[in-house]
Specification:
Number of helices: 21
Largest sheet: none
Distance between the termini: 59 Å
Order of helices and strands: HHHHHHHHHHHHHHHHHHHHH
Structural class: mainly alpha
Strand content: under 5%
Helix content: over 70%
Shape: globular
Number of strands: 0
């Protein structure tokens, strides 16, 4: 309320009762304003001169992170107001952030305009130089490489850019963006590629210790689940929760999940635990994690963690449909919704999502029974081959594991073993 009151004094009105319907109306109005200005000419708009409008942009840029953690709809409205101010009153360095955030907003399920999202994201990257907005680079990179790039580009291409953004944020002393970008790096390097995990662990650990040295305990708690996850995936016996915070993983998890707010940290904790369980073949633990938290966290901006949760939900859904026949319809629907979502994403980025779709299709056919077993076997093989070709080491392994379980169901032990070598 204080934030909204300050904005009103600066001539920016945002309703405290924003909802999905009003957001859609607002997003459409922003689209119209941009369309009338023509997207390719946005960087040719005049410089923002109005002092109050510049103050409003500065305040809105500060409010973005706060509103993201507290009120999703206010967060979305803040983004739209930043774009409107830029188009109507001229450009400033923060306009680069506004364009990248608006691009990220367009990846939401209710909007799902990935072509326009990508155009706005690319425009924001160009704006860094055109608007002399070097200090805004970490903010822009967070939005573009966290929510937009993987909709169109191979996810592996985002890794060096995220590390570049991290170094810029650290040099600027912007610890909030340091944390956000390091979280994204960990998500893309582990959940996205799953390759060179030893190198990923080394990088995460180095920067984790750097934040500890700067007494950024809250930031470290956001990174700790990622560090724990990658350490376990590389075979380490270290308990990083004991090493760095003198607590157990379960105690840390319960304390954070019961904490008021801390939305981002809860998302990270849930996804790390579910991902680790699935990759280690502990499907019962993954199922318990999904039942506890999974259905809550699949909407909003399509940050890379969102795509991971959608995929994991599909894997868990089809597994539970096979194992819990009394609830088969319920769990099959969870799997099918995830499969349909990833199918729509594959149209824009087959590199990142085609192998995932093939694996979910194979799992769906496995559920349907032996009359589909030959097609299912082919889908598993296609998923493995495509994941290998596109360098998704983690999901190549997961598809191999699932194919082995499929063949064991039909007592084909040699075929099963061939997938586990």
């Amino acid at each position: 309320e204080t934030c909204l009151s300050v904005l009103r004094t600066l001539g920016v009105e945002i309703s405290p009762n924003a909802n999905a319907e009003s957001l859609l109306t607002e997003a459409i109005s922003v689209k119209e304003i941009i369309r009338n200005s023509h997207i390719h000419n946005l960087l040719d708009l005049p410089k923002m001169e109005d002092f109050d409008k510049m103050a409003a942009m500065t305040f809105l840029n500060t409010a973005v992170l706060c509103s993201y953690e507290t009120n999703e709809f206010t967060f979305f409205f803040v983004i739209c107001r930043m774009v409107k101010l830029s188009v109507r009153h001229g450009l400033c360095s923060i306009s680069a952030v506004a364009f990248s955030l608006y691009g990220a907003l367009l990846t939401c399920p209710t909007l799902s305009d990935f072509d326009e999202a990508y155009k706005m994201g690319r425009l924001a990257l160009m704006a860094i130089d055109r608007l002399n907005a070097f200090r805004m680079k970490p903010n822009v990179f967070l939005s573009f490489y966290g929510a937009i790039a993987h909709c169109k580009e191979p996810v592996q291409a985002s890794i060096p850019k995220l590390l570049e953004g991290y170094e810029v944020a650290f040099a600027l002393g912007d610890m909030e963006r340091v944390t956000g970008i390091l979280q994204l790096y960990a998500a893309v390097a582990v959940w996205g590629c799953g390759d060179k995990l030893t190198k990923a662990e080394e990088i995460i650990r180095i920067h984790f210790r750097r934040m500890l040295q700067h007494k950024q305990d809250i930031s470290c708690k956001n990174i700790l689940p990622h560090l724990n996850q990658v350490a376990k995936l590389t075979g380490s016996k270290e308990n990083v929760y004991v090493t760095f915070f003198n607590t157990t993983e379960d105690n840390f998890f319960e304390e954070e999940m019961n904490r008021r707010g801390a939305h981002t940290r809860k998302l990270i904790l849930h996804t790390c635990r579910m991902y680790l369980a699935v990759m280690c073949g502990d499907m019962e633990s993954a199922a318990r994690e999904y039942e506890r938290n999974g259905a809550k966290y699949q909407g909003g901006i399509r940050f890379f963690g969102t795509t991971t949760r959608v995929f994991l939900a599909g894997i868990v859904g089809f597994y539970l449909a096979r194992k819990r026949r009394l609830d088969e319809k319920k769990w099959a629907q969870v799997g099918e919704i995830s499969m349909d979502t990833i199918k729509s994403w594959t149209q824009d980025s087959s590199w990142n999502y085609a192998h995932k779709l093939l694996l979910l299709e194979a799992e769906c056919l496995f559920l349907k029974g032996e009359e589909h077993e030959h097609i299912a076997a082919a889908k598993y093989n296609e998923s493995i081959a495509l994941a290998k070709k596109h360098k998704f080491k983690n999901e190549e392994g997961l598809a191999s594991q699932k194919a082995a379980m499929f063949h064991l169901e039909y007592n084909r032990k040699e075929e099963a073993l061939s997938h586990l070598k």
